[in-house]
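Exam revision sheet. Question 4 asks you to relate a sequence to its structure. Input first:
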Amino acid sequence: MIKQLIRFFKVKALKSLLFLLSLSTRRMQMSFGYVLGHIWYYIIPIRKKVTYNNIRLAFPDWNEKKVRQCHKETLIHLCQIFAEYGNFKKLKNKKFFNKYVEFRGKEHLEKAFSLNKGVLVLGMHNGNGELSIASLCQAGFKMVLLGRKIKDPDIDKGLAEIRSCTGLELLPAYGPIKPLLKAIRDNKGVIFVPDQFVSSKKGSKSYFFGRPTYTGSGLATLYFRFKCPIVFTFAYREGLKWIIEARPVQVSHEDNVETLTQKFSNLMESVIKEDPKLWLWVHKRWKKVDKFTGKN
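Answer key, structure tokens:
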């Protein structure tokens, strides 16, 4: 009974907060995230050690001051993303959408869809990735997201509601293959987000920031089965505007599942290096890092 009450009030509190944030201006949302990010950095211990260690591993040449600065800016950025979650339904408003969302490289997506073969989309947790996917749907592209379930069922349900508000279809990352094949036959964009660690059974060996890890190989596997065009999309913020950029991905005749998956990792790494604070450093990207190197 007590657990049910806690869940009830937790959900109500989060929904109420997001509703209040949706009524505020973009500048107020950013200010709220800025303050909340500082509270997280100085007071709340959750995921702080993981974030710091990941940044230190990725940038071993950085001095302590630069690592800590990126650490703080990362937490602030994540809190600003949270503050922006109240804007998802606003994307349906054409005036709001045109004012705060800008596409760069949209022609690459249009060209890929014009082939009528389905489109494989390489996404990543950079900038406000959730909002960028929703914006793609609002711009008229039919998209399907392959996503993992979040451990907290209430947050998972709430996130699913937010994700689908602009027409995004959701499929489990490791679910039945038939819905995925249907999406490709229907010329939809299938979004993979392979910048998180997976087990060796679900991914292939790769290197990320020069360190060994495993990366999901579903996107590369599907490419070699259907030869759909691949488009890389990612998001970042310029002032109060969200920028969604799309770039075509070229596959060579020498590529296989492992080399293509590594190519995806290299593309994501190059974007992260442009503005490191925008990536999801709170995730344990290199756990079990030495499993295929033979080290203990």
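Marking note for examiners. The mean pLDDT is 90.
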